[in-house]
Amino acid sequence: MKSNTLALACQLLEIPSITPNDGGCQNIIAKRLAALGFEIEHLPVNQISNLFAVRGKEQPVLCFAGHTDVVPTGDINAWRFPPFTPTIDNNTLFARGAADMKSSIAAMITACERFIQRYPHHRGSIAFLITSDEEGPALDGTQAVLKQLAAQQRIPQWCLVGEASSNKQLADTIKVGRRGSLTGYLKIIGKQGHVAYPELAMNPIHHAMAALAEIAAFTWDNGAPPFPATSLQFANIHAGTGATNVIPGTLEANFNLRFSPETTPQFIQKTIEEILQKHGCEYQLEWKQGGKPFYTPPQSQFIQSVSHTIEKCLGYCPEHATSGGTSDGRFFAEYGTEVVEVGPINASIHQIDECINVTELEQLTELYEAILVDLLA
Ligand SMILES: [Zn+2]
């Protein structure tokens, strides 16, 4: 006999909703939430399905955030079980999206069902913001919906993202912030020529080497716990025609920084330009800003409540981390929402044989319910 959470997770996991497709998942979610008294808004943007649902009109608003899209399966034949036929084996549920993150969505919904049955007149409001564009460009998903909510002054105070935040045990780690991301596309300009006549050419490789070495070695900051030090990594570098007797005309390099709140994009850009100029490089440099860094401090009532509740339910204190890639939490944070990510163990996400332990799924439901009780009962 499947629990409500497991049954709902399987229902969602059967749908092959590879980004940007939702495949009808959000209709299933909307139906369950409407039955609980949530007001439902379907807010599609271009190809993307988005769902915003809210129960209550009062502050504070606790918003559960998540996505119904999943990453592609990779080689289907490499899977132990077909990736869109959710299968339980040895108390483990296998399917694409089992950890990232349809199980979390199922747990959020059944947690709300239990909570609302116990506390039909709870304080504040509960909301859901679900998109089908988290694993893709993420332009027409959460970001676009929040823009609409901001225009209506409906930005939630707290956001719980169900991404797989845990390492070895459920909720041993919660994400309370993320580093920022900044990419530089650099072109060093020289003058092409014959290697036998260097006086008639200008070699951009020779010109670039000292400057790039200095950029790579630069210490941006020492980090600020829980943020590690800012890191710059060159990702690609290319120059040359393939021939061994030609000095190339240009060198192209790109690099990415993951930066802590101790360092600003403005400082990074200024410093790198100064290094290039100091070495006499003629260059073109374009920048692409990814997410800004954000951080919800441990003193916040939200983080304290989530941390205490984890300790009460599971018997250990979660580590507060800012590691890992980006999530839609960054979009909420830009509007001043306090954000925390609490979800399943991340070991199998995006992999062949993605899975979640069935006991972990039930514990996650209990945890989400307990967080609701602590904040809104
Ligand atoms: Zn995800």
Ions, cofactors and other bound molecules: zinc ion
Helix content: 25-40%
Multimeric status of the protein: single chain
Quick one: overall form? elongated
Overall mean confidence score, pLDDT: 96
Instruction: Please report which band the strand proportion falls in: under 5%, 5-15%, 15-25%, 25-35%, 35-45% or over 45%.
Output: 15-25%
Cα radius of gyration in angstroms: 24 Å
Structural category: alpha+beta
Return the string of H and E elements. HHEEEEEHEHEEEEEHEEEHEEHEHEEH
Taking the sheet with the most strands, its summary is: 6 strands, mixed
Structural features, described:
The chain has nine helices and 19 strands. With 377 residues, the protein is of the alpha+beta class. The strands form six sheets. A six-stranded mixed sheet has the order 1-2-6-3-7-18. A four-stranded antiparallel sheet has the order 12-14-10-15. Strand 4 and strand 5 (92-94) form a beta hairpin. It starts with a helix and ends with a helix. It binds zinc ion. Residues 67, 100-101, 134, 163 line the site of zinc ion. Zinc ion binds at residues 67, 100-101, 134, 163.
What does the secondary structure layout of this molecule look like, with pairings?
Elements lengths: L3 H10 L11 H11 L3 E4 L7 E6 L5 E7 L19 E3 L2 E3 L7 H17 L6 E7 L10 H10 L6 E4 L11 E3 L1 E2 L1 E10 L3 E2 L9 H14 L13 E9 L6 E2 L2 E10 L5 H14 L4 E7 L4 E2 L5 H14 L4 E3 L7 H5 L4 E4 L13 E3 H19 L1
Parallel strand pairs: 3-6, 3-7, 7-18, 8-17
Antiparallel strand pairs: 1-2, 2-6, 4-5, 5-19, 9-16, 10-14, 10-15, 11-13, 12-14
Helix pairs in contact: 1-3, 3-9, 5-6, 7-9
The structure holds zinc ion (ZN).
